[in-house]
Structure formats: structure tokens, C-alpha cells
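Form P-L/3: holo structure prediction, ligand SN-glycerol-3-phosphate.
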Amino acid sequence: SATGEPVRLVGAPVVYAHRGASAYAPENTLAAVDAAADMGVEWVENDVQRTKDGELVVVHDDTLSRTTDAKKLYPDRKPWRVRDFTAAEIARLDAGSWFDARFAGERVPTLRDYLDRVDANQQRLLLEIKKPELYPGIERETLDVLARAGWLDRSHVTRRLVVQSFSADSVRSVHTQRPEVVTAFLGTPAVADLERYAEFSDRINPWHTTISADWVSAVHRVRGPHGKTLEIDTWIVDDPTTARRMQELGVDGLISNAPDVVREATGGF
Ligand code: G3P
Ligand code: CA
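OUTPUT (holo model):
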């Protein structure tokens, strides 16, 4: 546009880079954050877990075997659980080569390093607390890291951060401890239960195959803890047909491994 601002058509969903732009770079690495930034995608999604010695790190699976060279580096540490490794041990892992040789040397980021990169790129973050049942207290620790990195400052906290989880208890815990933080519940609650979820969730983020137009309308009628009607970000939408179907259903956001593809299909940014 004339001002250089991205043009977002009315009704176009917001696009989130799922685990970063993970169709193009290894998921949950700084390279995947940068790949999203290079496409002009503002929002990135990540997954947070905890090491044996209490460091918060960004990784999706609760084991290290799929997305790092842990099996090679630590052959006798089966099943390579994140929570059984120290931060120093995890820092030695290669989290890029499995995806493509040109990403050799990418690391499993600490949450702090990840936040600083998202910040430096002037991006926004959809932070998932992954498997919180494995990590008692991870909500408070995540909020502490966010606070220390400046992410909870009142001037911008609601504009650039959403914290989500499949665990309603975890989302409620985040909301209770820091009510200013925008939260999302991952799942598809029954319409009859929406008011209960709306006590602690501002957004409801369902798998795309599970939703209907009636469900979307019902969610959009309920008000969340900040007094606004609930919004819906659906996952994982990677193809143009599904993206347009979700747009027609009226969802507010698409969480995508290929954010450029679904943005193009829906006229969003
Ligand atoms: O953001 C939604 C999506 O990330 C939830 O599923 O397994 O990719 O964390 P998963
Ligand atoms: Ca996730």
C-alpha cells in the first residue's frame, strides 16, 4: 500500500506461523522465527517445556529424538525425554540437520533467547505451554521469563502476546496469576461449556476439522475475561482450500506451517 503497511482485507484472518514458518525451516528454531519474519508474518507460535535443571526451552515433542541429533550424541539416554536432559546438554544438540543440511547448527532455543529474537524481529508470539502436566509450576516460570524479558509491560502485553494450552487448568492458572495476559484454550468445547471456558480464555483455538458455522457463531457470542467476544484461531491450516473454508466459517485466525500460502489464499497478513 501507499504507506508500506500490509493490506489486510476486511474479514481476512490473522495468520500465525506454526512452530515458526515450519514448512520452510526447522520447527521451533530461531531460523523458523526468521523465516516467518522474512515473509512479513508477524505472529509466530511455539511450544515451551522444561529441562531437568529448570530451564524453559522451545521444543514440541516431550522427547528430543525427532527434531534433534540426541540419539547420536547421547545413544544411551533412551527415550531422550526433554525433562531428563540439562540445559547444557540440550544446548549441544543440532536441531536443524534433520530438516535440511543447510540448517545444521540450529539449536533448541531457550525461551529467553526465543523471546529476544521475536522481539528483535518486531514479531508477536502465540506461546503454547506444552504438556504442563509433566512440568508442575511451568505457568509461573513462563510468566517470570516473560516478565524479565519485558513482555508483560502493560503498554504492549495485550497487543503482542497470547498464551495457550490444551490444558484448561494451565490456561486458568496463567489468567489467575497475570490477568492482563491474553489467553487461549486449545480445543473445541461444547457450546454449553463455553461460558465456563470464557472465565479464563479470551480465545478458543480448535483443530480445523472439528468446527462448524454454528459453533463459530456460538463462540463469537460469548464474552471472555477482558470483556471482548471470544475469537477463534484454528490449526493446522496449510492448503488454500481449507484456508478459504475456514475464512467462510468466520474464524479469526489461521495457524499454519505455510503462512505465506494461506495468507495468499485469504487476503490476510
Ligand atoms: O497452535 C496449535 C497447535 O500448535 C496445537 O498442536 O501439536 O502442533 O502443538 P501442536
Ligand atoms: Ca503448538
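COMMENT: Residues 138-148 form the longest helix (11 residues).
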